[in-house]
Write the structure tokens for this entry.
Amino acid sequence: MTTIAERALPTSDADPFDHDVLEDPLPLHRALRDAGPVVHLTRYDVYAFARYEQVHAALVDWQEFQSAAGVGLSNFRYEKPWRPPSLLLEADPPLHDAPRRVLRAVLGPRALRRLRERWLADAEDLVDGVVTDAVLDSVVDVVPALAQAFPLRVFPDAVGLPAEGRKNLLPYGDHAFNAFGPSNDLVAKGAPRVAELSAWVNAQCAREVLSPAGFGAQIWAAADRGDITPEQAPLVVRSLLTAGVDTTVHGLSAVLYAFATHPDQWRRLRELPHLARVAFDEAVRWESPVQTFFRTATTDVTVGDVVVPEGRKILMFLAAANRDPRHWSDPDAFDLGRDPSGHVGFGMGIHQCVGQHVARLEAEALLTALARRVESIELAGPTRRHHNNTLRAWESIPVRLRVG
Ligand code: 4MI
């Protein structure tokens, strides 16, 4: 006999972190959304939300869906985290509040005004070089040439990092985002370098290492004012180094891929360059560079006809919510004419991406510079995905750029 509870709780034995799923997660996302508001993932014995309504509700309900037990599969109540927990991502109020306030001030729109002119000029300069190469070589891989090159050119300087060792930023981030998933082959691949990369990242968080005017120094200044403690400052700097590079690289790759495959939308951007920011947010909705995060139930939570028991992990499929036809019209279309606001690609609620203004400024600078010089972007060969347990990423997007 099937009980009501069993009927109300559909199950799936799919592995969201399997390579076939990472290559193309869309079929799983649709199946999980259609299965019901909550699905039990038998393979990891966790609950899954894939519809917009439940993902959004969980994101804004930090009281019932905590982050302090970790936002990956590992439950910090029982398992030791691979590094000291983040004071932002892996904390709840009240511990979360002071670090959040400090970063909001350091990375907010007002603070970024001082970077704007330089970043716009840097983007023009980078695009100039890439366009010149494109005329000579004809095919450009925009992942290394633009999506990686631009954040690596502007962000570490803005933080105030020394020049030495910056090549460690992407591999460190890649591993950190893999570590939110199960300890599969992707985590094993990163394991040999974890000690070395962590040591480098941790060393960059010290006040003496950071140049005087950057985000890092401003975090230390907040500690001097007593807004956070001196013990907290290095961990807040570490959040910038973990969350600030891979995310924007893959966000920029996403918007570049979207334009390479939607020439009509590129023409639209060329005509109305002020759409650059909307285009980036639409790409974040459409591709969801951060695909998933977990929460942990702090009490028995009723969702639909199902009780998610206290202490259990819930996997929120941000990417599936961002294409839920129950919320979005024509969700699979990349469309500069839509209003993508309300997407959960940056999260929602008290943890919503504190660096989103940095990401948008990078995207605006790069897209504006490209739109000024490039008439068309066309795929020029097979694209390759980069698999990561949390990120939807590209390894390679070869394109032909027509200048004009
Ligand atoms: C949403 S991505 C992300 C955010 C914060 C941290 C890492 C990744 C962190 O370490 O605080």
Remarks:
- Residues 86, 88-89, 239, 242-243, 247, 290 surround 4-methylsulfanylbenzoic acid (CB under 6 Å).
